[in-house]
Amino acid sequence: MHRELTVREILKSYAVMRLPRTFSVVAIERVVQDVIEALQVNDPFVSICTFRRLQAHRGMKIISP
């Protein structure tokens, strides 16, 4: 997990790697947004800190099939 990336960027890159290739860009964005809302991330565009890194890790678990 890169510390320079935002939560949204981390989850999006992970979703692209883990979700089936049949998912469209719009579908991937929707999954990422749903995960961000489920984790209650206030500002997914802020660089990642320890707490946000934990949230991103939880989000990656949600995205994994």
Protein architecture, described:
By secondary structure, the protein is mainly alpha-helical. It has one domain. The chain contains 3 helices and no strands. The protein has helices at 7-18, 25-39, 50-63. The chain is globular and about 35 Å long. The two termini are 19 Å apart. The mean pLDDT is 80.
Structural class: mainly alpha
Q: What string, H for helix and E for strand, traces the elements in order?
A: HHH
Q: Please indicate the percent range of residues in DSSP E strands (runs of 2 or more).
A: under 5%
Give the termini distance in whole angstroms. 19 Å
What low-confidence regions span 5 or more consecutive residues with pLDDT below 50? Answer: none
Q: Describe the main β-sheet briefly.
A: none
DSSP E strands, number: 0
Shape: globular
Helix content: 55-70%
Number of helices: 3
Give the integer mean of the pLDDT values. 80
Please tell me the total number of domains.
Answer: 1
Specify Rg, calculated over alpha carbons.
Answer: 11 Å
